[in-house]
């Protein structure tokens, strides 16, 4: 109990909001969608798993995670039916307590324009800005913010960029099959850039087995978010098997699917460009998920001169009192 009280006291969502950069979110999206050239002057035309640029996107994501101090980044190759080799990118921010199951934040970096008549996956563009460059930009920014958080977390935070989502959740299915231990909670961001009708409503779906996780996200959003965040029981949709959360559900692991609804007209077409994305909406989603992941990862108490954490409530952390009672109320065994 005492350890958790110290953890809750170190949580400061206002600092997280200040740390998230809309400029970095947009810069990542511009490179992923081919608007901006990469450092070698080339541009990503498509992130379809049947297009040769999927390898460029994979290298780009590996490099982007590797540029963040404190992360351990690996490739997770897997088989699929297309012509190009593919891999998930897994980046871990190690927690202080290896006995705690990891918190997972994930999105998919492959794309498609399969709803365009005559679209050729091997050659034609598929910018996939909303779906799901938005989610990839968000998890990268969350990784930057959490990796720079001092003094870190008790629980490992695992960031996963899946490939081959658009051809049947192949990357996430392979990832879950490869897991050697259950995860604590997985949050799938797909897609999170479009703001239908400027409504500022963010939907997510949950499985009834993990209603507590849904309640916790809604409660945190009420405290810190500019968005109206509403969970929908996947039973109301006849089951939500539309994204990378689904293999986690099938394996009995808690996950939420966070994604805008209804989908924009540009969905799965060559028109899914930055024009479909509301940068402020994406920023708000990123802040919320960063705060939720940080909360669940159990921030370690700030170290004080002389090694005592007993004075954690200093002038810089007075805002923690806003969130501490909520965190206390939501505490449950991992
Ligand atoms: Zn998607």
Which descriptors apply to this entry?
disordered C terminus, globular, disordered N terminus, 10 helices, eight-stranded mixed beta sheet, 334 residues, 8 strands, alpha/beta, 35% helix, Aminopeptidase, binds zinc ion
Q: What can you tell me about this protein's structure?
A:
It is a single chain. With 334 residues, this protein is α/β, with parallel strands linked by helices. It has a single domain, classed as Aminopeptidase (3-Layer(aba) Sandwich). Helix content is 35%, strand content 14%. The chain has an 8-stranded mixed beta sheet with strand order 1-2-4-3-5-8-6-7, sandwiched between helices. Strand 1 and strand 2 form a beta hairpin. The N terminus and C terminus are likely disordered. Zinc ion binds next to helix 5. Zinc ion (ZN) binds next to helix 5.
Q: Based on the structure given, which CATH architecture is correct?
A: 3-Layer(aba) Sandwich
Give me the oligomer status.
single chain
Average pLDDT figure: 89
Query: What is the number of independent domains?
Result: 1
Low-pLDDT parts are 1-10, 307-334
Major sheet size, sense and barrel closure: 8 strands, mixed
Short account of what is shown:
This protein is an alpha/beta fold and 334 residues long. It is built from 10 helices and 8 strands. It has an 8-stranded mixed sheet, with helices on both faces.
